[in-house]
Amino acid sequence: MAHHRGAMITIGAANHGEIAFGAMQATLDLGYSPSMVFFSWAGFDEMDEIIGDGHAELLDDGSIEITFAYHNGDKAILKAKRDTSSTAC
């Protein structure tokens, strides 16, 4: 039986972040508007190099909807909730 871990996005300082889901891991270059974070990304899915872009929007219920587009046209839409176990610096 395969184990599926959840997706994780980290929005860090200095306009950089990370995203991971499944075998895919990528770094993010971030830009901001009042209600959204825009990003381009580059990383690896297993051994394949991948790139793309996307955005994350804060929804009314406090969750984040992440639209994640691969350069070849595939798209994933993820919904995330803030990890309340960590504290902001």
Task: Provide a descriptive summary of the structure in words.
This protein is an all-beta fold and 89 residues long. It has strands at residues 8-11, 16-21, 24-32, 36-45, 48-58, 64-70, 75-80. The chain has a seven-stranded antiparallel sheet with strand order 1-2-3-4-5-6-7, with no helix packed on it. It starts with 7 loop residues before the first strand and ends in a 9-residue tail after the last strand. The mean pLDDT is 82.
Number of helical elements: 0
The string of secondary-structure elements, in order, is: EEEEEEE
Mean pLDDT: 82
Give, in spatial order, the strands making up the sheet with the most strands.
Answer: 1-2-3-4-5-6-7
Q: For the report, how would you describe the main beta sheet?
A: 7 strands, antiparallel
Tell me the number of strands. 7
Overall outline: globular
Structural class: mainly beta
Strand content is: over 45%
Radius of gyration: 13 Å
Distance between the termini: 38 Å
Level of helix content?
Answer: under 10%
List unreliable stretches of 5+ residues: none
